[in-house]
């Protein structure tokens, strides 16, 4: 089902992509509507949820890149987004964990999709059951994000990261919360005009199930009054979210209220509450779900979305910073195939490792996620000072920061390494597409049968073959065009011993 899953090590592109739409150019959210579940919940006495238990909810992230694998959200930004999501939901006692790690998808048409039907196709093709499926893309149909009740949420790269609440907003929708200004989507409130008592809106693609009629018939919403008299029937059907008619991105004052004054159909004047994640206030204004919103989300998880919950168990947080073993204190390393090692951090299952020539890590030459406590770097610049750092995490806790900065220095480039004492060497160390590997066979090894194996930097066997060592120089054709770019270990084993070499596979 998954094209590739994160178990070992991944390379993340860290370049900024000019074609990604900026947040200011995106609509805040594409979602509209009130679910049938919420209408039912209003009519029937709600589920009694007196517990304060933390509800652990399975999330399945799908991180989209272009067909060539470029453009995916940086691992660091994604971890920060996930940490922010759990911080935003902490007051609800709802917490999220990655169900099956991160699913990586390379598909340009989904990575930047122009319309909702393409997003529907992306989700229905890749969703996994019993989880809230979350898709991180460069452009979610011109929005910062949206939620399809029957499929999942989509989030734009430029609406992700620390201090961005788009993911929380869309998960709010997925747990049956409407916008407090429902009905005003696509309309611009105008104080100079009388406020209507009823609004109609086009809800196509956002009903509880896939549309059978496109466009869907218009829906209607009562406009909420300031005195609260129609709050259970009007707008979002939620009484502790006060009237709000602002369906564009808006700034707030120091009390986190809208600068724009509004008046309800009776003429009563008010300002919108920007603290709500479900409003369209700027991220800096937002800080909460209302108590009634929290009750609705918890009731949703205990009924309609019970399959997303995992039984409570003790989840071990990752809190301690990682400590490097080597290289540290400016140690000298080779520019190709440098080995980085660190001490395991309690409860961490993954580590994000970055190395940069710049102390602010503006440009990163290593940006990798691994499940090990070591990694072998690819090609670094020769004769340079470097900084490196480690961020530990697991599927439940992504809020541990990077630890301290460690330093190292790269040596000079060696064109072809010298043969070892027995006469073994292997080249080139940087292997372009279709290039064979040349082995120089120690004289004492000639006539032996040997096994050739190649492991990737995460220690997975990617290739093996048997070779009769009949000549002083032998060429080995590796299927490296099928391998991702990165560092590999080549190992030649015979009865006489083991010879090793580091290889960097580069895609031209
Ligand atoms: Zn929304």
Strand and helix layout:
Elements: E1 4-5, E2 10-11, H1 36-43, E3 55-65, H2 75-88, E4 94-98, E5 103-106, H3 108-111, E6 112-113, H4 116-126, E7 132-137, E8 139-140, E9 145-148, E10 152-156, H5 166-174, E11 198-201, E12 219-222, E13 257-263, E14 269-273, H6 291-302, E15 309-310, E16 324-326, E17 331-333, E18 339-342, E19 350-356, E20 366-370, E21 374-376, E22 385-393, E23 406-410, E24 425-427, E25 430-431, E26 437-440, E27 449-456, E28 461-468, E29 473-476, E30 486-494, E31 497-505
Parallel strand pairs: 3-4, 3-5, 3-7, 6-8, 7-10, 17-23, 25-31
Antiparallel strand pairs: 1-5, 2-20, 3-15, 9-10, 11-12, 13-14, 16-18, 18-21, 19-20, 19-22, 22-23, 24-26, 26-29, 27-28, 27-30, 30-31
Bound molecules: zinc ion.
Zinc ion (ZN) binds at residues 29, 31, 169, 173, 179.
Task: Explain how this protein is built.
This protein is mainly beta and 508 residues long. It folds into four domains: 51-177 and 292-310, 3-Layer(aba) Sandwich (Collagenase (Catalytic Domain)); 189-288, no CATH class; 324-410, Sandwich (Immunoglobulin-like); 425-505, Macroglobulin (MG2) domain (Immunoglobulin-like, Sandwich). The protein is built from six helices and 31 strands. The chain has helices at residues 36-43, 75-88, 108-111, 116-126, 166-174, 291-302, and strands at 4-5, 10-11, 55-65, 94-98, 103-106, 112-113, 132-137, 139-140, 145-148, 152-156, 198-201, 219-222, 257-263, 269-273, 309-310, 324-326, 331-333, 339-342, 350-356, 366-370, 374-376, 385-393, 406-410, 425-427, 430-431, 437-440, 449-456, 461-468, 473-476, 486-494, 497-505. Strands 1, 3, 4, 5, 7, 9, 10 and 15 form an eight-stranded mixed sheet that branches. The longest helix is centred in the first third of the chain and has 14 residues, at 75-88. The radius of gyration is 27 Å and the shape is elongated. The chain binds zinc ion. Zinc ion is lined by residues 29, 31, 169, 173, 179.
